[in-house]
Design brief:
Number of helices: 4
Strand order of the largest sheet: 3-4-2-1-5-6
Shape: globular
Distance between the termini: 19 Å
Strand content: 15-25%
Helix content: 25-40%
Radius of gyration: 15 Å
Structural class: alpha/beta
């Protein structure tokens, strides 16, 4: 797996459409640098509607979302006819076979886990090619990932 760094400037995405577009551009640049193919099977751990919208805009079409929010049901993305499958998954004990997905994506998930290390190991287990993590820099799990070389300061 190839690592790429994201700067503070890259992650300033407070909510405006312009900032979301900038975030998408940065996101796509890093996906391209890591050779992540948007036609691959993608598992989104702890995902939200905003994550799905971002990933659909990035070009992903084969998305499985895992979240315990009852309102996030299987649905076609409006305007883009992308079907999103929804599974209830515990990030620390993913009940799926090894290498089930080409790519696993987790946006602000690890810092919510009792055992971020176990969740990361599970993501690595079910991913056959890539694991993409987006975490706030000020969390304990983010500091641990930086210390172990899995992320950048």
């Amino acid at each position: 797996m190839k690592a790429t760094s994201v700067t503070k400037q890259d992650v300033k995405t407070a909510g405006s459409d312009k900032r979301r577009d900038q975030f998408l551009a940065v996101f796509l640049r890093h996906f391209k640098a890591c050779n992540i193919d948007t036609s691959e099977k993608l598992l989104v751990i702890g995902g939200s509607r905003q994550d799905i919208e971002l990933l659909v805009r990035a070009g992903f079409k084969n998305i499985t979302l895992s979240n315990f929010e009852p309102e996030l049901e299987e649905h076609a993305h409006p305007n883009l006819s992308v079907k999103v499958k929804v599974l209830a998954i515990d990030a620390e004990q993913i009940d799926l076979p090894d290498g089930s997905f080409d790519c696993v994506f987790a946006h602000e998930v690890l810092h919510h886990c009792r055992s971020p290390h176990r969740a990361l190991c599970e993501m690595l287990r079910v991913a056959s090619k890539h694991v993409v993590l987006l975490e706030p820099n000020d969390s304990l799990s983010m500091r641990a990932l930086t210390l172990t070389g899995f992320s950048f300061p």
